[in-house]
From TrEMBL:
Pfam families reported for this sequence: 2OG-FeII_Oxy, DIOX_N
Cited InterPro entries: DIOX_N (IPR026992), IPNS-like_FE2OG_OXY (IPR044861), IPNS-like_sf (IPR027443), Iron_ascorbate_oxido_reductase (IPR050231), Oxoglu/Fe-dep_dioxygenase_dom (IPR005123)
Keywords noted in UniProt: Iron, Metal-binding, Oxidoreductase
Annotated family: Belongs to the iron/ascorbate-dependent oxidoreductase family.
The keyword Magnesium is assigned to this record: no
Molecular-function annotations in GO: metal ion binding; oxidoreductase activity
Protein name: Fe2OG dioxygenase domain-containing protein
Domain Fe2OG dioxygenase: 180-281
Highest taxon of source: Eukaryota
Stretches assigned to coiled coil: none
Keyword Oxidoreductase belongs to the record: yes
PANTHER family documented for this protein: 2-OXOGLUTARATE (2OG) AND FE(II)-DEPENDENT OXYGENASE SUPERFAMILY PROTEIN-RELATED
Amino acid sequence: MISSVTEIYPPVNLHHIAPLDFSLVREVPDSHAWPQLGSYSSGVEMVPVIDLNDTNVVKLVGQACETWGVFNITNHGISNCLLEEVESESRRLFSLPSQQKLKVLRSPDGITGYGLPRISPFFSKIMWHEGFTIRGNVLEEYQKEMKKLAERLLSVMVGALGIAREDVNWANPLGDEVNGAQTTLQLNSYPACPEPDRAMGMVPHTDTSLFTILCQSSTSGLQIFRDEVGWLTLPPQTGALTVNVGDLLHILSNARFPSVLHRAIVNNTHHRISTAFFYAPPISAQISPSSRLIDHQAPKYRSMSCGEYIGIKAKHLEKALSLVRL
Ligand SMILES: O=C(O)CCC(=O)C(=O)O
Ligand SMILES: [Fe+2]
């Protein structure tokens, strides 16, 4: 049985881990030049904005998860002051000299540390990105507050699906690192890029988590894919956080809450920072469509441990969901 996430991922080649020293580059090197990014629209449609204190919150979150897979939340209880502190701490870390950041480079079989996104080996081109993946005590207050918020959101989502709290019995606020929810903080940095149309900040992907709480700070770059619309920019909304549905909630909800395809683009004037908080069950937890949902419909996905699913995703990326489909 898999007992730790470090056993799940195959080792990665160094050039898929170490980011560019962005302070030295004046143009996009061929290694980082992606074929056509395709056109996208901005501000045509706006994702739902949900006040978490709204008396209809369960219904609103349910509708947003069903029809968008992403929504903004206000009155989420995380103070602007803390959000600003995290952004400035992120900026401080990313502005360190490259040699210093490379001292905490993620190891080839590791999870945490400095480096390119974990999905890099799937692509021949490299992303215009650097990140710190954090577990444990760094930025402790933020992680504690985000965990509380995630538990609140989980209750709302579970309510919207009409499933019982026992179906997510691992989500005990007192759960420890092994038996409780798995949370990971990902600081993303997209330096201003001399040729943004040739670069890709983060490739299109769905998150593996149950859901992710993203803080975009002040610069646009996040895009989601909508059928019949294509890529749609989600501009940051001051004080709001963005929640997006990940694959594990897609499975738990029997595809009623589909995980949302998203990516990040870059620009040539602003150094963009984003902070993603991934919330997932422990790797030993079984994940399957909730028994309450399959009373009246057939299960679309087989049951497996979260660790097994994470392993399938690490090997097959966007094909993972179809590989566990019944
Ligand atoms: O930077 C963003 O807006 C998106 C980041 C993201 O999708 C991720 O970290 O998984
Ligand atoms: Fe993501």
